[in-house]
Design brief:
Layout (H helix, E strand, L loop, with lengths): L6 H7 L1 H21 L3 H6 L6 E4 L7 E5 L5 E4 L3 H28 L3 H4 L4 H7 L4 H10 L3 H20 L5 H6 L8 H15 L5 H12 L2 H7 L51 E6 L10 E9 L7 E9 L2 E9 L6 E5 L3 E7 L5 E5 L2 E2 L4 E4 L2 E3 L2 E7 L7 E7 L5 E4 L5 E6 L20 H10 L5 E7 L4 E6 L3 E4 L7 E2 L6 E5 L7 E3 L5 E4 L7 H7 L8 H11 L6 H8 L8 H10 L2 H6 L3 H9 L10 H28 L11 H11 L12 H17 L10 H4 L7 H5 L4 H4 L16 E2 L2 E3 L2 E4 L8 E3 L17 H6 L3 E2 L7 E6 L3
Helix pairs in contact: 4-8, 4-10, 7-10, 8-10, 11-20, 19-20, 20-22
Length: 805
């Protein structure tokens, strides 16, 4: 599904986690020393798996059947009873995770972790998500409000039913705070932070690019696509023409004795996911197939909690199976037996930086309705072990003031996450849909971070739309920061659900999304460009799907596990082309590289060293080519991110093909010199001084580091809390997206009405308790790519939740 964003996402999203880990390292040690927590406490905080347990508020008994992996089937008489029971289960197995979700969005982590988390809290408080969540709950419809209340009461009952609080609270020396209905909305807001760019950094960098560089150079670097594009409608975009020497001539710049400041080229931090659908006419059994794997940061416990939920309907049992987000009662992705759906992050443009035209002396700013003064709200941050801290938030008619640009102008952020109507739990309605049309109508009303919604139904039909609300822009495309003072550029609310772009039953019988551009023309104009990922992954998926005429569930898993590095094939050829005898004579270390590149399997295999060097060669080449061209941008604004150039692959490919001398940094004698220097830098980056280049396999770097927050702070806890450290196949520009702590948070494929043929696996286990039999259950299947059943297996434990007397 963060700006968000592939191995992508962890770079932009992890500062708060690193700060949290540092703080935990202190508080955990203190907590252990003070409390002497032992096995007796851990056992006391284990969830209840069997027997009979009162649950206040139920209208009738609810039966919870768990299988060998801990996946519950929850059967109740009403949706409210089921939601209450789900809240009970989430609290018993995942409460600490839920607590972090709500606190992350609300800016309340310092209340748990102290001073080290205060900076995160202060930064996120500008969004005032707790106040917004309270307003969302207040305006919720009757049925939605009832489900929120039932879920929240179930959470608190589940927490109270534990003999001792979750073990994390003992170590932190605090008590868990009860759950409120607004906390479920905060869990949704936390996903907005995970999947979007909550500070506008991407748009800001593009603004600097176009403000500082000559227009022709900025347009060239800011390409909108290239040869790897694979939208579901429309074709590839062309890379803009090269700027001539009259625009920019790097050879004419003074040649410094030392290289200029380098831009470390890192993949754009785009949270990646794959989903696709195959119409029934192209499958082996005649039913439509839906496949989904959402790529997110990986931790213990996993972000998702599996569940199968059932209650009586007007025409029979309603049963929806898939993944829930602890903190909410809804199945986020899965199947109800008639309709199956999956999500990927859409990367449309759902926020804008608004440049304020201010009279700072008067404390006012211009609006289409005259000058106004920002409203000011004081937010109090409660800090464990320290005094409360006041943070002042300034808000404009467009949103909170977030920063100053490189010219000193203040800017406000307009973001769909701030709109009350853009955040809700309408996704719950998917449980009762019967067709793709009904499901897409629900998706267009749903209030989540906008996602590519791919759906299949039991009639064999397939469709795509956006789940979540989309801004209605007037007068501009919103791609760059702009002033809105005269009203010429603005949002005219949000698109009505019926206006959302959608595609149904394409002639090819296939639909696919992978965070890249999905559409063109009028639909693209509605969505905007919020930093689409490169299309290489989407293209590989598309080509694999189109090659199948009788697709099966096994074929879907094979595509999800496809680690062929097709994208790096041209880079391998470039590298081999410059590793000539003459080049090796003058650069002897590269002689050891040549056989590794020649013998590379063409995959991102854990045991392959050749992949790692070709990958590093691309990175060092991208850096060498782009750094001198964007140097004025970082000089103007130290926050400039070269990763904002999400389609730079096509730009660099064109430069390497045409080899214009005026766009080559003066320190290189030729383009071949640049490539050979980049090859040497790649070897040094991977192997350092080690002469045994073959020892530096991809798996040596791509080793699982799926850890619990506590073990990140106290490594001694790793054996108890973390998943095994194993080398992993896969990487970013292929269907099998995989990094040490980023990748497929789940994989499944299912045909509606044929759920028994479907498969599912995810990293980690169902439970967040290290002594639970479900703590690591199923993890090995995820590592090995072995299919396990989409539906829960035979019952191992039965728990009856009964109405309280």
């Amino acid at each position: 599904m963060r700006r968000g964003r592939d191995n992508q996402a962890r770079g932009a999203r992890q500062p708060w986690a690193r700060r949290l880990a540092a703080v935990l390292g202190i508080v955990v040690v203190i907590g252990l020393a003070a409390a002497g927590a032992g096995l007796w406490y851990l056992r006391g905080s284990l969830p209840i798996l069997e027997g009979s347990q009162p649950l206040p508020g139920l209208s009738a008994a609810v039966r919870v059947e768990r299988d060998a992996l801990g996946v519950p089937t929850v059967r109740g008489e009403t949706p409210a009873d089921v939601a209450r029971a789900v809240g009970f289960l989430h609290a018993q197995e995942r409460f600490f995770q839920m607590d972090l979700l709500r606190r992350r969005a609300a800016g309340e982590l310092a209340e748990l972790f102290g001073e080290g988390a205060a900076a995160w809290d202060a930064g996120v408080r500008m969004h005032r998500f707790r106040a917004r969540a309270a307003r969302t709950v207040a305006r919720a419809s009757g049925p939605e409000a009832a489900l929120l209340a039932a879920y929240s009461e179930g959470v608190n009952a589940g927490l109270a039913a534990l003999r001792r609080p979750p073990f994390e609270y003992l170590l932190l020396g605090v008590s868990p705070r009860p759950w409120q209905a607004e906390d479920s909305i905060l869990a949704v807001h936390s996903m907005f932070i995970e999947l979007h760019d909550e500070t506008g950094g991407h748009e800001s960098s593009l603004g600097v690019l176009h403000d500082v560089l000559p227009p022709a150079l900025a347009t060239f670097l800011d390409a909108r696509g290239g040869e790897w594009d694979a939208p579901i409608t429309g074709g590839a975009f062309a890379v803009p023409p090269l700027p001539g020497p009259e625009i920019v001539d790097l050879r004419a710049l003074p040649r410094s004795a030392s290289p200029p400041r380098r831009h470390s080229w890192r993949e754009p931090s785009t949270a990646g996911s794959n989903n696709w659908a195959v119409a029934g006419a192209f499958t082996a059994h005649g039913g439509a197939l839906l496949a989904d794997d959402m790529h997110l940061g990986l931790a213990v416990p996993n972000i998702w909690y599996r569940a199968s939920l059932a209650w009586p309907g007007d025409t029979g049992e309603i049963r929806v199976t898939g993944v829930t987000l602890p903190g909410t009662p809804a199945v986020v992705a899965g199947s109800n037996g008639r309709v199956a759906w999956g999500l990927t992050n859409a990367y449309g443009d759902f926020s804008d930086l608004v440049v304020l035209e201010e009279d700072e002396a008067a404390g006012t700013y211009r609006t289409p309705d005259g000058t106004q003064s920002p409203s000011r709200v004081t937010e109090m941050i409660r800090i464990k072990g320290s005094e409360d801290r006041a943070v002042e938030v300034e808000e404009t008619i467009w949103g909170p003031v977030v920063d100053r640009d490189h010219r000193g102008r203040r800017r406000a952020l307009r973001w769909t996450a701030h709109d009350p109507e853009a955040v809700n739990l309408t996704v719950l309605d998917l449980a009762t849909t019967d067709t793709i049309d009904e499901a897409m109508a629900v998706a267009s009303r749903a209030g989540i971070p906008p996602q590519n919604f791919v759906v299949a139904d039991h009639h064999g039909r397939i469709g795509w739309t956006i789940m979540g609300r989309i801004p209605r822009r007037v007068g501009c495309d919103g791609r760059l920061p702009a002033a809105w003072a005269d009203g010429g550029c603005r949002w005219d609310g949000l698109l009505a659900p019926a206006e959302a772009p959608r595609l149904t039953d394409p002639p090819s019988g296939r639909l696919w999304t992978a965070n890249a551009r999905t559409v063109d023309g009028a639909m693209l104009a509605l969505l905007g460009d919020g930093g689409y990922a490169l299309g290489a992954r989407a293209r590989q998926i598309r080509d694999a799907l189109l090659a199948l005429d009788n697709a099966s569930e096994a074929d879907m898993l094979a595509i999800q596990l496809d680690d062929r590095a097709l994208f790096l094939g041209p880079w391998r050829e470039r590298l081999l082309a410059v590793l000539t005898s003459a080049a090796l004579a003058s650069r002897p270390r590269l002689a050891f590289l040549l056989p590794l590149v020649r013998e590379w399997s063409g995959r991102a295999s854990a045991g392959d060293a050749g992949y790692r060097y070709v990958r590093a060669f691309r990175q060092t080449t991208m850096e060498a080519v782009l750094a001198p061209l964007v140097a004025p941008c970082s000089e103007a604004d130290g926050r400039f991110r070269v990763g904002a150039l999400t389609q730079a692959e096509g730009v660099v490919t064109r430069l390497l093909a045409e080899r214009p001398l005026h766009l080559l940094e003066a320190r290189f004698a030729s383009w071949d010199d640049l490539l050979l220097t980049a090859a040497e830098e790649a070897v040094n980056a991977v192997a350092g001084d080690d002469e045994d280049l073959a020892a530096h396999t991809w798996g040596r770097r791509n080793t699982a580091a799926i850890a619990h927050p506590l073990s990140r702070a106290v490594p001694a806890l790793s054996v108890l809390l973390d998943m095994p450290r194993e080398p992993l196949d896969g990487d970013g520009h292929m269907p099998r997206v995989q990094g040490p702590d980023f990748g497929a948070s789940e994989r499944f494929a299912v045909s509606p009405g044929r759920e028994e043929r479907g498969y599912f696996h995810m990293p980690g286990g169902q439970s967040g308790h290290p002594l639970s039999p479900f703590y690591r259950a199923g993890h090995a299947a995820w590592v090995k790519g072995e299919a396990t059943s989409f539906m829960p297996g035979p019952t191992v434990y039965i728990l009856t939740l009964r109405p309280a007397p």
